Every structure is written in C-alpha cells, then in structure tokens.
Amino acid sequence: MILVDRDHKRAQGEALDLMHAQAYAGRCQVRAGNYEDLSDCHVIVISAGASQKNGETRLDLLQRNVQIFNSIITEVDKFCPDAILLIATNPVDILTYISQEISHRPHHKIIGTGTMLDTSRFRSLLGEYYRVDPKSVHGFIVGEHGDSELPLWSSASIGGLKITTEKINGISFDKEQMDSLFLNVKTAAYQIIEKKGHTDLAIGLMISHLVKTIRNNQKSILPLSVRLEGQYDLQGLCLGLPCVLGAQGVEAIITPPISKNEQEQLNNSAETLLKSIKDISYPKFYTKDKV
C-alpha cells in the first residue's frame, strides 16, 4: 500500500501507524510515496480534496475539488494509466464524471463510491426496525450521493418478502416510519459532521470492501457511481446504480424495475447533477473515444 499526499510527512506518519497493525490485520507493506511509485498499482483510491464544512452541502465543494482533481488525474494517467480509480471525494458523482472526462482510461475503470454508504445506512436502519441482521436486508439507495438520492422501495425485501406489502418478523410497513427512516439516511453525513467534524469510519470500510471485491474478482453487485448510457433513459452523467464489480472494474449496470414515482425522483436527481456539471469548467485531455 502506497500513500501519496502533498503533505509527505503526514503520509509517512499514516504509513507507520498502519504498519503497526500488521499483527492483527495481516502482513502488508505500507509506505509513503510519490505518483511515480504508483506504476504497478492495480487500484488507486482518490480521497483527496477540500473538507466538507458544517452546514455545507456536497455540491458546495464542487469547484474547489474539480481544480484539485485536474492535477491528480493528470499525474495518475501519466504513471499508472491502466489502474482502476476509486473516487471517494465529494461530490462523488460529479467528480467521478469529471475524472472520466479528464482521464484517458475507459469509463468502466473510473468508479465512484456512489450510494454504497447510503445503502449501508439504509439496510442498517431497516435491520434495526425489523429486528433482523442488516445483511438479510436487500434494498438500494440510488441516484445522487446527496440530497436528491432516493430509496427503491418497490424492490426492497427481507427474506424474499417485499417490505412494502408483507408483514416481516411481525412488523408491517409503516410509511410515516419509513419516511423518517429514509430522512435519517439522507441526513446522516450532516449529523456526523456536526458532531465530529468529518466522516471516515464507515466510508473507510466501504472502500476496503471495494478494493477486496476488485482484487478477488468477486463480481459483487454494489450501488456505485457510474456513467449512464441510456439506463432509465438517462445519459451523460454519473450517478449511483447497482453494478457488477470485478477485477476489471464495472462489468455491467443493473436496472431493477422501478415505479413511476421512483423514475420521476431519479430524473430529478439526474437533473440536479446535470445542472451542476453545466455550471463548471474543466479541461478535457483525452482524444480517443471511450467505452
């Protein structure tokens, strides 16, 4: 594992700290390095960027982080053009799109963490509500990783039973309770930032899971930020949808059936992102068509 940061001294300190956990996490060499040291890396996680401040939306971060990403993507294209890029910086959907526009590598190798964390929060809270293991809850948050995201209630299930129509573990679907639950999902990051200043633990676990999924070619279905090419009649942007993830990146985008209301909400989420994309400027370095 190689850590690259403009504050090289901090990267060295983080590397030393991580190395000391080998006795419990397993043998892994960790060191600070520069962009040229990344030439043999298969996966590169980009989490650099300006921090989200209390009261600031993810979209407020946009222009500052676009400038940061211009310099990062140029360097990783130079030294590790074949690596898979995992984008974790907010606003993640737009920065995933911008990274794809700037980079020479194909779109399926530039992936945002998307609504993976939102979906984890969603399943965790549903697990608490229905008194079951969250791993037994199946459902997705899709769209923007942000204020316009939406839950796919029409396909959410536990043990093969649809949440909206079946009594599960003696508990019936309660729309008012579920609306409140989703609000907690959508505002979770704001609550955490208000109380501790930043989010790091849950997203760190998500990134670790993504790297393992790619490394082991698990082909797991995860809600990631990917470029749409006509899915749900949307294109020209990146947003969170279930995807098959393997060793070469995103292999397929999954499109579960959605209700008319969910389609309308997804359209609104897409419009929110498209408006932000149109309001920014960024260089395009690639000259070849991408797939």
Secondary structure elements and pairings:
Blueprint (H helix, E strand, L loop, with lengths): L1 E2 L4 H12 L2 H4 L5 E2 L10 E4 L15 H18 L4 E4 L4 H11 L7 E3 L3 H15 L6 E2 L2 E2 L7 E2 L5 E2 L2 E2 L12 H12 L1 H9 L4 H15 L4 E10 L5 E12 L2 E5 L6 H19 L13
Parallel strand pairs: 1-2, 3-4, 4-5
Antiparallel strand pairs: 6-9, 7-8, 9-10, 11-12, 12-13
Helix pairs in contact: 3-4, 5-6
Walk me through the structure:
With 291 residues, this protein is of the alpha/beta class. The chain folds into 2 domains: 111 residues, 3-Layer(aba) Sandwich (Rossmann fold); 163 residues, L-2-Hydroxyisocaproate Dehydrogenase, Chain A, domain 2, CATH 3.90.110. Helix content is 40%, strand content 18%. The strands form 5 sheets. A 3-stranded parallel β-sheet has the order 3-4-5, with helices on both faces. The radius of gyration is 19 Å and the shape is globular. The model has no long low-confidence stretch (mean pLDDT 92).
Which key features would you list for this structure?
291 residues; alpha/beta; Rossmann fold; L-2-Hydroxyisocaproate Dehydrogenase, Chain A, domain 2; 2 domains; three-stranded parallel beta sheet; three-stranded antiparallel beta sheet; 9 helices; 18% strand
